[in-house]
Specification:
Helix content is 36%, strand content 20%. It has helices spanning 16-25, 48-58, 74-81, 93-109, 129-137, and strands at residues 4-9, 31-37, 65-70, 85-90, 114-119. The chain binds adenosine-5'-diphosphate.
Length: 153
């Protein structure tokens, strides 16, 4: 059976931390679906189109990466895509505690689903989309935190 993982997130914007998790997951899974969750309660900084465009560009040379979007529960999206794995990255103990709650609730809703965590690479442990957005708002240069080719214009 094909091993399909969903990597859900806002990617607002995608950072080198996200990119690293996705690339490191490629040898583990037959397919990684990078899925932008459209959360109605959260107004994104970058448009959905812009975030999609970046993801498509970064992984255009990776045949086993698929880019998608979803609304609603991640478990419902996984069912629809016949994905038995959710991929998440762990930076800190705070991430773990947050992810534990979500992962265990997802397991209750979809018992065949496994959440797989990759520890982030040490150089990305402090990197987050929210800090990157703050730097952008204040006119700082975030090039070193974004994947190659992501241009803020
Ligand atoms: P969310 O909106 O669900 O917080 P994000 O787009 O911020 O989504 O993150 C998606 C996933 O990427 C999460 O599993 C998160 O832990 C992981 N992630 C975010 N930043 C990093 C990083 N610097 N290194 C490794 N994983 C990261």
């Amino acid at each position: 059976m094909e091993k399909i993982a969903v990597f859900p997130g806002s990617f607002d914007p995608i950072t080198r931390g996200h990119e690293s998790i996705i690339r490191r997951a490629l040898p583990i899974f037959d397919m990684v679906i990078v899925a932008i969750g459209e959360n109605s309660g959260k107004k994104p900084y970058f448009t959905l189109n812009q975030r999609l465009e970046w993801l498509e560009m970064i992984f255009s040379d990776e045949p086993t990466v698929k880019i998608s979007t979803f609304t609603g529960l991640t478990v419902d999206f996984c069912r629809k895509e016949k994905a038995d794995f959710i991929l998440r990255g762990l930076r800190t103990a705070a991430d773990f505690e947050f992810e534990r709650g979500i992962g265990q609730m997802n397991k209750m809703m979809y018992p065949d689903l496994e959440t797989v965590f990759l520890l982030c690479e040490p150089q990305y442990a402090s990197l987050s989309s929210s800090i990157v957005r703050d730097i952008i708002r204040n006119g700082g240069d975030v090039k070193q935190f974004l994947p190659e080719g992501v241009d803020l214009g």
